[in-house]
Amino acid sequence: MSSNQHPMLNVAVKAARAAGAIINRAALDVESVRISQKQVNDFVTEVDHASEQAIIETLLQAYPDHGIWAEESGREHGRAGADHVWVIDPLDGTTNFIHGFPVYCVSIALLVKGRVEQAVVYDPTRNDLFTATRGRGAFLNDRRLRVSKRTQLKDSLVSTGFPFRPGDNFNVYLRMMSDVMQRTAGLRRPGAAALDLAYVAAGFTEGFFETGLSPWDVAAGSLLVTEAGGLIGNFTGESDFLEQRECVAGNPRIYGQLVGLLKKYSKFATAGEKAELRQNTLRLVDPETKPGTQVEEAGKPEAGEAGKPEAEA
To answer: Which annotated residues bind Mg(2+) (predicted)?
Structure first.
């Protein structure tokens, strides 16, 4: 850990590496890991819990008056109502992990009065450590990060996440992916949103978008992106996205182009945009649908969809 880092970031790095050590040991014999299912296609393992416990213990040992907001244990640890709140995803990409697919990470962010001030995303399989402190830049293993300089979508690599739970609206997502895929050099779905954002910050990809994400999926990655010179917000381009369950990020030029494509899919889209989207979505399912057909129900969330996270398990 660098002596030049903010003290709170140093503690977060210590916590992330402790969690990474637990994950790497378990990865040596992943078939023996006990797995349970929170809901269909949403898995949690004993490794998630052990990793989260190690992170929380490390953070609270250093800062006992701070709050905790973690994926598996919620807000049951730390001090309620604290201005400083650690937002934790102990293993982003659990589904990848239990299959031995080496794309997963630990994500830790510090919110101070609701604003992300410190961020760590740690990839234990590659020993890649992404860090950021507000106003001090973003780094990968002590190397300063800058977002990609590409300016056109046709030259850009964009990452996303696919819907995978019952109730997710696949038809709307197909239209969204179709709009982006036809205009980019490639669309990727690695399976860990925190790493997707870290890769935007590093310039490995030009952009990222996904719906249904929870704050612990995007908090740390959001600071990495902005400190590397990128932009992040909801699908209409507003920066207050953390709990809005829709996220788009990219270098400034690509971000603007992605927002232009995705804003009609936002829950904050205009009534006209939503009506057009419902019409087009129904035509995707039934090409015989004529313009003007009453399609008020098409494209609306199915029963049980509202409030359901779509983030990678």
So the answer is: 71, 89, 91-92, 217
